[in-house]
Amino acid sequence: MNERDSEQVARTFVEGGYTLTRDEQEADAILVNTCSVRDQAEQKALGKMGMMGKYRETRPHVVYGFMGCMAQSRGEELFERIPHLDLVVGTQKYHRVFGYVDDILRGRMETRMDEVGPEMSGQAVEEEVGPVGLVRPVRRPDQGMAVGNRRHVCDTAEEKDSQNTIRDHLHDGPRQASAFVSIMQGCNMRCAFCIVPDTRGKERGRPIAEVVEEVKRLAGRGTREVTLLGQIVNLYGRTEFGKVDGKSPFVQLLEAVHEVDGIERIRFTSPHPIGYRDDLVAAFTYLPKLCSHIHFPMQSGSDRILKAMRRPYKNEKFLAICDRMKAARPDLAITTDIIVGFPGESEEDFRETVECVKRVEFDNSFIFRYSKRKDTPAAEMDGQLPERVKEERNQELLRIQGEITMAKNAALIGTRQEVLCEGPSKTNKERLSGRTPQNKIVIFDGDRDRMTGEIFEVDIEDSTGFTLYGTPQLR
Ligand code: SF4
């Protein structure tokens, strides 16, 4: 979701005349989109931003900003932690980042021009700060904007309909085979370990027609696969849109996206057991573009721990949904999220989680060792476990899941799998990478320009546990 939000912000800068750079030393504005899910992520973002302050010594105009969940939850306090910080923008304000940065930069450039006097030509400034000198100024008096040398901007207020502003994509690279589409923001659940309801606000869905328009634009540019994003995606629209013919707004949306020509694959992440009803299970029987994979967070296999986590369902319900989904789609892959070492988790609770992993045989699991998240109820709970216990449980579950994953992938050697080619492999740019409908990564050789964005079959010849290798069968 953060990746998608960052793409939206980047797009507004490109439209405003800026260019994107991966080299922070040449950047005129450095923005860090932050995650608050774990304290560790916040510490990393703070450390990185602290280190980057050194660029201001040689390039005093550089604008530094935090966006996203940590910006939302910490607000003004961040300016005390990071003295060179200029901007803190919350999760409902991504569409305002460009205006804020552009105004601050312009203010600094104007100040510098005044200070230097007539000896400094406009040309010299443009050369020094690159495209920034060429963009159109944006002024928003209603925002109480800081335009000047060292004033800062903090905007973490709620904004009605902000969910509708995450809708544009970058199109300056090669064909984008697969794209994320944000369909909602926020979450009304209150899981005891999670900060998201505080940082992202209440559930707010985008209208179906707007999502479909975005998907059509993507399809028109050659995108073949979309992943619909929401914190609690299957509950999309429950507070805004009604059921039609007994179908939830989410299933109505899936049906509408399914109609878009050019889109061949549809995924979504992440669903919650609450609200995972028969209409969604049934959709997998009559919507063939729905991929045979769900990422379905289990969190714990113990009812006692689920209750402590404030996850309002029993494990039996989670397992029953997995069974119904496998019946609807026999080739379905299921991946999950699991927290081990939650406060009060006994050895017996942990064994129940292990049993569930073995029973469902997840294709993969993201296993997290519980770590305290400030400002969440779980951080204050009794029964916090020693790190050693958490680590042992983590390692044991990783080993069990690793064995299941390796066995499942090894079983695919000798089969032919449908793959959507996404482009060069991240680990070896000489080779290509794609995914099966079950979301398994396949590496193969081929012509990048011709094959990226195409769907074809690949003979699977090898597996190194988590990755498959094969030879494409091009017609
Ligand atoms: S459902 Fe997901 S996003 Fe919502 S509170 Fe629980 S873990 Fe957080």
Give a quick summary of the entry.
This protein is of the alpha/beta class. Helices cover 36% and strands 18% of the residues. It has 16 helices and 17 strands.
User: What would CATH call the architecture of the largest domain?
Assistant: Alpha-Beta Horseshoe
CATH topology of the largest domain: pyruvate-formate lyase- activating enzyme
Q: Tell me the CATH superfamily of the largest domain.
A: tm_1862 like domain
The fraction of residues in strands falls at 15-25%
Radius of gyration: 24 Å
Largest sheet: 5 strands, mixed, barrel
CATH class of the largest domain: Alpha Beta
End-to-end separation in angstroms reads 36 Å
Number of helices: 16
Number of domains: 3
Which ligands, by name, code or SMILES, are bound? iron/sulfur cluster
- Helical fraction equals 25-40%
Find the structural class using helix and strand composition: alpha/beta
* Total count of strands: 17
The overall average pLDDT, rounded, is: 88
Shape estimate = globular
Sheet with most strands: strand arrangement: 13-14-15-17-16
Residue stretches low in confidence (pLDDT < 50, at least 5 long) are 116-149
